[in-house]
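Methods, example record. To illustrate the input and output format used throughout this study, we show the complete record for DUF881 domain-containing protein. The sequence lines were provided to the predictor; the line carrying structure tokens was produced by it.
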Amino acid sequence: MSEHDEKRAEEQRADEQGGTRADRGDGPGESGNRLRKELPDEVSPSVPAARATPDPEPEPDPEPEPEGVREPEPETAAEPQLTGRQRLVQGLWPPRVSRAQLIVAVLLFGLGFGLAVQVASNSDSDSALRGARQEDLVRILDELDDRTQRLEDEKQGLEKQRDELENSSDQAEEARRQTIEKERQLGILAGTVAAEGPGITMTIEDTKGTVEADMLLDGVQELRAAGAEAIQVNGVRVVAGTYLTDSGKGVAVDGNKINAPYRFKVIGKPQDLEPALNIPGGVVQTLEKEQATVTIERSTKIVVDALRAAKRPDYARSSSQ
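The corresponding predicted structure is encoded as:
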């Protein structure tokens, strides 16, 4: 039985008791019962509403996580493994160079540069000969043969002089004669006496002004190597101590300024002198590259009459007694 039904039952018992009291002539009870009957039944709406709404079920407590079990953390990306080349780069850069290593590196660089220059110069000379014509190669071989023959003749002459001194009955007179002849030869080389003989005349026309002193010096050295015995350039005698320098638009020989055209008078064997100047990559080709014109003429008589005053050496003295 619900609470509402119990309340109605109590009201009915109260009514019955009130009726009994009314029968007994109880006035106030009678009026009270009459009012109760006229009023509607009181219904408390809150009670059934409260009964109708079920209590919310308590949420279950979250189960505690076991201490030993944890959520796996996201693994960090593994570092990439370096290759051998990358490790080498890291080891070499940034460089850690000591003073000794720097000195060794500079020395090795200088050595390598010198070797490279030497190889380049050798390859240039080889390429010049490799590109030469057959006639040029034959001429070079003939020039070498002539130089060898010239040295052999000089050797035989010295041996002849020695034999004459040993076999002559008047050794003093023979020695004097050879001394005079030697003095004359040395005078030609020193430029103190005039000379004449077969040779060549080389004329260099320099209209562009591009010929320099070192080019003329190369010509002098080439002529000496080919057996030139006396050389004269524009009236200046060339001797062992001669030097050439650039002077304005011309060239100076031993301080004496000369201008183009440059004329070389050379005494020697023409068959040796001319080929020496015309070898591939030689004096003539070098001058022609500078837009100069070179003319060489052979002659049976070349006169070299420019003289140099005899100069006593400052330091050198004869060692013979």
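Annotations derived from this record:
Residues 134-167 form the longest helix (34 residues).
Strands lie at 195-205, 230-233, 236-238, 244-247, 250-253, 256-258, 262-267, 293-304.
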